[in-house]
């Protein structure tokens, strides 16, 4: 009898393989970074072959560390950086171009052109998303329009598209030798090509974007057996697929309408379970698929996406050299009492929710001679909390439900200063679970459910435990003043890029 469930967690900066026991505890993990490629300002790429190599390395690494035989694993799930787009040759498995990463803004002109007839929300009712550089559809169009010979091959079904989940599953199940070409509803809902009601590729959207259906993967449930792995995991069912943020929602066991989580990673993503009917946003949020378990009805979410949070700490480290390693930001921020009157709006890739302004760019405002590097570190952390507050306000308006507590996960939740400030600026408790790596856990849960390793979602709820809770301590008048100043700072970043 298999003792474990496992997950490939393919993220923006690194790939991990994590193995969990039946109680949801981490048994083994191996992780490797991959290169970030910046060919031009606003362009961000990854090498898909490097990502696949890293995936194989971390699978081997985690099994080796724990001394676990592949036969002890019941199923493997995949979770991934969602909108990052790969197009590859079916016969060889060779990408026709680097993966275009979700943060990449090169499709600005494509989106502006499409918005001329009907505005940014032209397709929102159908796909739940505004026209923005963030999503995969315009990225596929860019590859078809700009990489020689690819459109003709796409028409013939000789090249395949996938977000990274599809790329990893295809390779994991055999690649050119019978690899399964599949995605799930959560990832498909990030392409601008899937109809929210039918949960299938929308013919009108494919026509508008000029994308042949032959290159698209089959849309499947998030929990279900897609095929068996080859290679190191030979014979193990590949049975779970969730975009990283939906996987975190699943791992946080937010299975009831009104339950929400926020993941603090490269970007920040808050998801609110809205049940089995899509809720259209009037406040700049995305209507997206949460998950679909087997043949049960699909569950929808409202999502607020923030492009740059943890990436801002990396920027302080790599571009400015203010800190040697990312965790050092907390100690530096603690050298000062407050932000010294400065606000750092990290609109490096434009602004995501609730503004959706791709022409915004980053700014530090309120600078005086008094300000030092401690203030910059503090303003960096506070930017994450302020952006989260803006998203939460929009969620409260759209859903009509006031959130009473926020479940948090991801790398930044071990930063005590940030989490306390987050509770202060939201005015609600912030709760970290005992397993904070809920993205990989959610994918493992989806895979384990599909093969009966866990019998029902109630088993998963029983696994969830609280590690720490931060309660608000800030004076209400100070909270309101700080937030007002933040909102003012955000307006200073608008309309910076002129086409």
Topology (elements, then pairings):
Layout: E1 4-10, E2 14-20, E3 26-33, E4 45-46, H1 48-66, E5 73-80, E6 85-89, E7 99-100, H2 108-115, H3 124-127, H4 136-146, H5 150-155, E8 159-163, H6 164-172, E9 182-184, H7 185-188, H8 203-209, E10 218-220, E11 223-228, E12 237-243, H9 244-251, E13 260-264, E14 268-275, E15 286-291, E16 299-306, H10 310-318, H11 328-333, E17 343-345, E18 363-365, H12 373-399, E19 406-409, H13 416-426, E20 430-433, H14 438-450, H15 457-463, E21 466-470, H16 476-491
Parallel strand pairs: 1-5, 5-12, 9-10, 13-19, 19-20
Antiparallel strand pairs: 1-2, 2-3, 4-7, 6-8, 11-12, 13-14, 14-16, 15-16, 17-18, 20-21
Helix pairs in contact: 9-14, 10-12, 12-13
Whole-Å distance between the termini?
60 Å
Q: Work out the helix count.
A: 16
Helix content: 25-40%
With strands numbered from the N-terminus, the spatial order across the biggest sheet is: 15-16-14-13-19-20-21
Rg over alpha carbons: 22 Å
Average residue-wise pLDDT: 94
Biggest sheet overview: 7 strands, mixed
Low-confidence stretches: none
Name the beta content range.
Answer: 15-25%
Structural class assignment: alpha/beta
Principal-axes shape call = globular
Number of strands: 21
Structure write-up:
The protein is an alpha/beta fold and 499 residues long. It has 16 helices and 21 strands. The protein has helices spanning 48-66, 108-115, 124-127, 136-146, 150-155, 164-172, 185-188, 203-209, 244-251, 310-318, 328-333, 373-399, 416-426, 438-450, 457-463, 476-491, and strands spanning 4-10, 14-20, 26-33, 45-46, 73-80, 85-89, 99-100, 159-163, 182-184, 218-220, 223-228, 237-243, 260-264, 268-275, 286-291, 299-306, 343-345, 363-365, 406-409, 430-433, 466-470. Strands 15-16-14-13-19-20-21 form a 7-stranded mixed sheet. A hairpin with a 3-residue loop joins strand 13 (260-264) and strand 14. The chain is globular and about 65 Å long. It starts with a strand and ends in an 8-residue tail after the last helix.
């Amino acid at each position: 009898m298999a003792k474990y469930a496992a997950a490939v967690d393919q993220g923006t900066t690194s790939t991990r393989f994590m193995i969990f026991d039946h109680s949801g505890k981490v048994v083994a993990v191996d992780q490797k970074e991959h290169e970030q490629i910046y060919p031009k300002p606003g362009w961000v790429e990854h090498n898909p072959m490097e990502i696949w190599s890293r995936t194989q390395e971390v699978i081997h690494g985690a099994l080796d560390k724990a001394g676990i035989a592949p036969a002890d694993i019941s199923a493997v799930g995949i979770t991934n950086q969602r909108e990052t787009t790969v197009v590859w040759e079916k016969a060889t498995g060779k990408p026709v171009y680097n993966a275009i990463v979700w943060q990449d803004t090169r499709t600005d002109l494509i989106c502006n052109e499409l918005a001329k007839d009907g505005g940014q929300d032209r397709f929102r009712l159908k796909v739940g998303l505004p026209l923005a550089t963030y999503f995969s559809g315009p990225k596929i169009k860019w590859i078809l329009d700009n990489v020689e010979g690819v459109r003709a091959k796409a028409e013939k079904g000789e090249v395949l598209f996938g977000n990274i989940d599809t790329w990893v599953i295809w390779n994991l199940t055999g690649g050119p030798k019978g690899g399964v070409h599949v995605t799930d509803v959560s990832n498909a809902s990030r392409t601008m090509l899937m109809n929210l009601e039918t949960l299938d590729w929308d013919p009108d959207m494919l026509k508008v974007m000029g994308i042949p259906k032959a290159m698209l993967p089959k849309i499947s449930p998030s929990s279900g057996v897609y095929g068996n792995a080859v290679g190191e995991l030979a014979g193990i069912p590949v049975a779970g697929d969730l975009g990283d943020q939906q996987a975190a929602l699943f791992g946080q066991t937010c299975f009831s309408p009104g339950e929400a989580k926020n993941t603090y990673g490269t970007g920040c993503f808050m998801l609110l379970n809205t049940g089995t009917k899509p809720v259209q946003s009037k406040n700049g949020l995305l209507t997206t698929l949460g998950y679909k378990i087997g043949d049960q009805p699909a569950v929808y979410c409202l999502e607020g996406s923030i492009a740059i949070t943890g990436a801002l700490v990396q920027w302080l480290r790599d571009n400015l050299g203010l800190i040697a390693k990312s965790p050092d930001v907390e100690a530096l921020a603690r050298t000062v009492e407050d932000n010294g009157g400065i606000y750092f709006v990290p609109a490096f890739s434009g602004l995501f929710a609730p503004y959706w302004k791709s022409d915004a760019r980053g700014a530090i405002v309120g600078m005086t001679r008094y300000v030092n590097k401690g203030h910059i570190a503090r303003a960096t952390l506070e930017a994450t909390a302020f952006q989260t507050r803006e998203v939460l306000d929009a969620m409260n308006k759209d859903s009509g439900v006031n959130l009473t507590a926020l479940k948090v996960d991801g790398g930044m939740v071990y930063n005590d200063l940030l989490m306390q400030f987050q509770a202060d600026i939201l005015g609600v408790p912030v709760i970290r679970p005992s397993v904070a790596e809920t993205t990989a856990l959610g994918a493992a849960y989806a895979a384990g459910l599909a093969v009966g390793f866990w019998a029902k979602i109630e088993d998963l709820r029983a696994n969830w435990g609280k590690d720490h809770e931060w309660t608000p301590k800030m004076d209400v008048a100070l909270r309101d003043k700080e937030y007002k100043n933040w909102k003012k700072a955000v307006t200073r970043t608008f309309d910076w890029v002129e086409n």
